[in-house]
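for the record, two folds in this file. i put them one after another cuz i was lazy. first one right below, seq on top, C-alpha cells after. the second one comes after a little note so u can tell where it starts
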Amino acid sequence: MRNINGLQIAGSLAFLAATTLLNVPVFAQTDISGEWASLRNFEEGVEEPIGDYSGLPVNDAARLRADSWEASLLTLPERQCAPHGVDRTDNVGPIRIWKDVDPDTLQLKSYHLLVAWMNMHRVIYMDGRPHPPENALHTFMGFSTGKWDGNTLSVTTTHMREQWLRRNGVPRSEKATLHERFVRHGNVLSWAFLVDDPVYLTEPYVRSRQFKFDPGQPNFPYYPCDPVEEVVRPAGVVPHHLPGTNPDLAEYANQYGLPPEVERGGAETMYPEYKLKLDKMIEKAAGPANKSSTTK
C-alpha cells in the first residue's frame, strides 16, 4: 500500500508539473534572419511626383518645405552619397538580416539589417538598453531598440537625422519617432512603419512593405560612392524654389485631372472616405454641360 501511495503521489506531482508547464505562455518568436527580396507592392507607387502630397498627413510647414524642393539638389557633391534615412531603407531592397548572440549566455543581443543599395547598415538592440539623451548624436539610421511581442518584433527608433518622407521634398524632422513591426509568415516578411513627427505631421503616417525569403541572392557588393561635379554651377548655389515660384507643383494634378486640393495632402486624404469627397469635387468641376442627362 505504501508503494502504491508513493506512485500515486509521484503521479500527482508529475501531472501538476505538466499542467503548470501548459499554463506557461509559449514564447512565439519567429526568426527573421536571412536574405529578403522586396515584393515591391508600394502603396505610393514607384514614382513620387513633384507637388504630390496626397495620402500624407502633412501640415503647412511641410508643404512650404516641399514646395521649395528642386530635384537637382541631389546633384550637389555633398548630397550625392548621402544614404536614405532609416524609414526609407525598405524602398531600396534587397535586405539581409542577421543576429548577434552573446557567446556565453546565448541571449539575443541585437539584430543587424543591411540594405544592398549603398550598404546601409542599422542595428536593433534587443538587450533592454535605454535610448540616448535627446541631444545625443542623430544619424541616418538612428538609434533602434526592439522587443518581441509574441511573433511580432516591435522596434522603436529615435535620433534620426532630418530626411524626407517622399523623394519630392516632403520632409521628416529630426524630432520624429519611428515605430516598426516585423512579422514573418512562412517565407513572407511583413514590415510595417509608423512615423510620428510633431514638426511636419498632424497625425502618424503608416505604411507597409512585403519581402520574400530569397537565400539565393548574390553576395551584397561593396557600394562605392565617389561624388563628382555633375552640374557646373557657381560656388555656393543651392537649387531651390522660393515660395510661390515652383512651376511644377500642378503638373501631377493636371496630368490626371485631379482637383489641386487633392495633391496638397493632409490627414483627410489618407482615408477611404475621402474618395466620396473627391468624387463630388470632380463632379462639380465637370459642370452641368459634361454631365450625362438622366431625363428626357
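(here's the note) second protein begins now
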Amino acid sequence: MKAVFLKDLSNYYKSSTVYILSAILLLLTGVMFFAKVFYYSQNCLKFASMPSEYSNTYNFGSLVLSGLPSFVAFLLLFIIPFLTMRLFSEEKKLGTLELLFTYPITEFGLIFGKYLSCFLAIIPSILISAMLPLTLFKLIPNMEWGYIISGYIGVILFCLAAIAIGMWASSMTDNQLIAGIITVVSLILFWIIGFPGDILQGGWKDFFSAVSFANNLEDFMKGSVNLQNIVYFICISAFFIYLTYYNLSARKWRS
C-alpha cells in the first residue's frame, strides 16, 4: 500500500494537473469570496439607516462565511473527476494493473494507496481556501469561525465520497475520458437528486432528500455538525470503495 501511495502521489505532483486545478480552485474561490464580501459591505450601508431587526438578521457568518465551503464543494464536482479518472484507467490501458496483482499487496491495499494519494493531492488547496477569511481579521475581529470549521468538515467528507465514486468509475474502464464523464454525471446526480424531492410527498421525498449531497452538506454550511450527515458520507465512501474492490477482484480472477 505504501509503495502504491508514494508512487501515485509522486505522479500527481510531477504533472501539471494538480497545480492547474488547485490554481483554478483558489482563483474562483477567491473571486467569489471577495465578491460576496463587497456585496455584504454595500448592503450593510443600506441597512445602517433601517430598523434594527433588519440589520440584526443580516449576518456576516451565515451570508458570507457559509458560502465559502459551499462554493468549494460545488467546484469539487468538476475538479475531482480530473484527478480520479486516471487512477485505474491508466493502469488498465498500459497493462500494468495485472502486474500490480502479482505484487504482495491486497486489492484493498491497492485501492487505499490510490485513494489516499488522490486525497492528499487536492486537500492542500482546499485547506488554503479555508484561510481566505483571515485576510479580513482586522476588519472583522469577531469572525464566526464555526461556519468555516463545520463547513470544511463537510467539504472534506464530501471530497472523500467523491474520490471513492471517481475511483469506482475509473475501475470500470480503460478510457480516462469515459471514467471522467461517468464521475461527473454521478456526482451531479447525487448533488441534484434531492431537488425533485421538494415537489414529492411521503417516502420518496424522504429518500431523495436522504441521498442528496446538497442536502447532507446543508447542515455543515449552517454551522452544525450532525452524526447523521457524517455517517452518510462515510457510507457513500465505503460503498463505492467496495464496488471498486469488486471490479478489481473480478478482473483479477479473469486474468
